[in-house]
Automatic annotation (TrEMBL):
Domain of life according to the entry: Eukaryota
Subcellular location: Endomembrane system; Golgi apparatus membrane
Protein name, per record: Sulfotransferase
Positions of disulphide bridges: 313-325
Length: 367
């Protein structure tokens, strides 16, 4: 009986020893697991901190356009290249590599900036021709289509507008053209909110021939349009000109310029002759390049005169090795307008033209 008790005692002692060792083992496992995951989280935190430091900051957005003026100088200076965008400063070897691969450098590198110069008018004055001619210059980058930001889409904000712009390198000029800006009452203040230092180009043309050209374009899209004379005159008997018709109203250049001069000095404007842009494109382009502070690159060698269309054409337009003229709509024949109607329009425009000559400091010889 004593032997049985002894064996039972030893058995209990062995069980207690095993349980004690198992308890110590699991305790060590728990402690080890705790330290393992604690150190692992520390490492992950370190990794996150490093990644956060390396990750570029998001681009800064401009404040509300309606409450700040002349912000583009500081905005452009503070711009950060968008994610995935290469820096605007690049080595000559990188530029050469991009060009050798047929990639325009400005399309790959650079920054989207607000336009430093805008062609603001006028419709059917020659704005498209001017922009096409300017595209020849390597230091000019322009939006292809008309943004209509300052007259139609202003509520979309300046950041939306800047995103429409092409990328430019340092030393290049960003441009856009929307001819309706010149006759939009709100446009001058809105452009000035963006930047009161913006250079403004206005292509003007004899307001009578401009009105006929405007009507011709509309007629081609709407063959059922009333006659020119019925639209130009309030009353055919009295012969009073209807200034509410847009084709007539656009030609009141002095009236529209007066609105712009409330926000911009005359020195910020260049008035380009639509007639001379046809008869002497190289000469007129020389004035434009001087105004923009560009080297005179566009010259006689870039043009030839198309006798059929009656317009100058580009020998080598940008991105092409073949000569090209403007679209089929350019040079379309005008409808026959009674001479007495044209003379009434000339008499109507004469005082406005003379006032515009005085305001602009240029005599365009339309009378």
């Amino acid at each position: 009986e004593r032997l049985v008790d002894l064996r039972a005692h030893r058995h209990r002692s062995l069980e207690e020893t095993v349980l004690s060792k198992v308890s110590v083992f699991f305790t060590m496992v728990l402690i080890f697991t705790y330290f393992f995951y604690s150190s692992d989280y520390d490492i992950l935190d370190d990794h996150r901190r490093v990644l956060d430091e390396l990750r570029p900051s998001p681009p800064r957005l401009l404040p509300d356009a309606r409450s700040h003026r002349n912000r583009t100088a500081s905005a452009d200076a503070e711009q950060v290249d968008a994610p995935g965008q290469l820096p605007q400063h690049m080595s000559d070897s990188a530029k050469e590599s991009a060009q050798n691969n047929g990639i325009p450098v400005s399309n790959t590198f650079g920054t989207k900036r607000f336009p430093q110069a805008i062609i603001i008018g006028v419709k059917k004055g020659g704005t498209r021709a001017l922009l096409e001619f300017l595209r020849i210059h390597p230091d000019v980058r322009a939006v292809g289509s008309e943004p209509h930001f300052f007259d139609r889409f202003y509520d979309r904000g300046l950041e939306w507008y800047r995103n429409l712009m092409p990328r430019t390198l340092d030393g290049q000029i960003t441009m856009e053209k929307t001819p309706s800006y010149f006759v939009t009452k709100e446009a001058p203040s809105r452009v000035c909110i963006m930047n009161c230092q913006t250079k403004l180009i206005v292509v003007v043309r004899d307001p009578v021939t401009r009105a006929v050209s405007d009507y011709t374009q509309t007629l081609s899209k709407n063959p059922g349009l009333p006659s020119f004379q019925s639209l130009a005159l309030k009353n055919s008997t009295t012969g009073v000109i209807d200034t509410t018709w847009s084709a007539v109203r656009i030609g009141l250049y002095a009236k529209h310029l007066e609105n712009w001069l409330q926000y911009f000095p005359l020195s910020h404007f260049l008035f380009v002759s639509g007639e001379r842009l046809v008869s002497d494109p190289a000469g007129e382009m020389g004035r434009v390049q001087d105004f923009l502070g560009l080297k005179r690159v566009v010259s006689d060698k870039h043009f030839y005169f198309n006798q059929t269309k009656g317009f100058p054409c580009l020998k080598k337009p940008e991105g092409s090795s073949r000569p090209r003229c403007l679209g089929k709509s350019k040079g379309r024949p005008h409808p026959q307008i009674p001479s007495e109607i044209l003379q009434r329009l000339r008499d109507f425009y004469r005082p406005f033209n003379h006032l515009f000559y005085q305001m602009s400091g240029q005599d365009f010889g339309w009378d």
